[in-house]
Amino acid sequence: MNHSHQTDQPDGSSHVDATPVDLEEAIEHSEFVCRTPKALAAYRAAAPKQSIVRRAICDYLYPPVILDIAVDPGPVVAGKRVKIWAYDDTKIVCLSLRILDAAGHQLESGRTHESGDCWEYYVGSYAAERMATIEVGASDLAGNFTDKVQAVNP
Predict the structure, then answer these.
(1) CA atoms of 122 and 108, how far apart (whole Å)
(2) Dihedral through CA 66, CA 41, CA 26, CA 118, nearest 10?
(3) Which candidate among 59, 106, 111, 154 keeps its CA 20 to 30 Å from the CA of 44?
(4) Mapped to the 3 state alphabet, what secondary structure does the chain carry?
(5) Are the C-beta atoms of 80 and 122 separated by less than 8 Å?
């Protein structure tokens, strides 16, 4: 599995600092996918017109990318929507979110839900007035995980 931490560059682009992954491990992952019915079905559903072996290798080598995190404008109140745009070359299977206060203590966490071209999360009442940072984590079929942390602008 590959874990990366995404950092934003001064020009607004994102850079993923990926842990080096051995091609041999990616091939082993593709072999696992081919002999595991549930994994095979998941890759077939995600990329029906591609070679399963090739797709599994590529998926193993490339973690998800979190493109943007945005909080709807206006005061942060209960029910405030957080939108996350993320991408994976195969499929994002889980995108979770944590809300932290200024001291770094977790106020709230949960899974987001897909909504058109993005993922959404609605802030609860306890976290609304205290949130300072949003941390988002995305994982793909290969088990790769990427996280991104963003300050909340009041």
Answers:
(1) 11
(2) 0
(3) 111
(4) CCEEEEEECCCCCEEEEECCCCHHHHHHHHHHHHHCHHHHHHHHHHCCCCCHHHHHHHHHHCCCEEEEEEECCCCCCCCCEEEEEEECCCCEEEEEEEEECCCCCEEEEEECEEECCEEEEECCHHHHCCCCEEEEEEEECCCCEEEEEEECCC
(5) yes
What would the two tokens of residue 26 be? 């990616």
d(CA 94, CA 111): 7
Q: Which residues of the chain have pLDDT under 50?
A: 9-10, 13, 15-18
pLDDT at 18: 45
pTM of the entire structure? 0.80
Token pair for 133: 């940072």
Q: What is the pLDDT of residue 132?
A: 82
pLDDT in tens, 38-60: 999 999 999 899 999 999 999 99
Contacts (Cβ under 8 Å, ≥6 apart) of 53? 30, 33, 34
